[in-house]
Amino acid sequence: MYNGKWEYDVFVCFRGADTRNSFTSHLMEALSREEIKAFIDDMLEKTEIGELISVLQRSALSIVIFSENFADSSWCLDEVATISQIMEEFGHRVLPIFYKVDPSCFRGLWELCCYH
Fold first, then answer.
1. 30-85, pLDDT tens digit by residue?
2. Is the full-model pTM beyond 0.90?
3. What residues contact 46, with CB distance under 8 A and at least 6 apart?
């Protein structure tokens, strides 16, 4: 699926403790089987916000996996804010996934991310 325009087809934002060994690992396996080039945020050091921006700019879209403890992570919140910024500036597309949570719990975060 990689078309040469983007370095990554998908950037995956998730709370590692909640989904790394369950939903996210299954998602990454499925993307890999379909030859969809994905970047997961644990490939970055948590202090590399500049690199995060660069990776997002080189990704066709982001998948944000909202989970129970997602909003407890300042890094996850920083990622959502950065995704929102890239979305506003460059028309970046975002696909939210609400994993075992009520989407209304994330209404403010989702609106920030997608209705900026």
1. 999 999 999 987 666 665 778 888 888 899 999 999 999 998 988 888 888 888 88
2. no
3. 75
The DSSP result for the chain, as a single string, is ---SS-SEEEEEEE-HHHHTTTHHHHHHHHHHHTT--EEEGGGS-TT-HHHHHHHHHTEEEEEEEE-TTGGG-HHHHHHHHHHHHHHHHH--EEEEEE-SS-GGGGHHHHHHHH--
| Whether 34 is catalytic | no
Q: What residue spans define the domains of the chain?
A: 8-114
Dig out the tokens for 104 from the structure.
Answer: 């209304």
Q: Which CATH class is domain 8-114?
A: alpha beta
Tell me which residue has tokens 């921006």. 53
- Which residue of the set 35, 51, 79, 88 is catalytic? 79
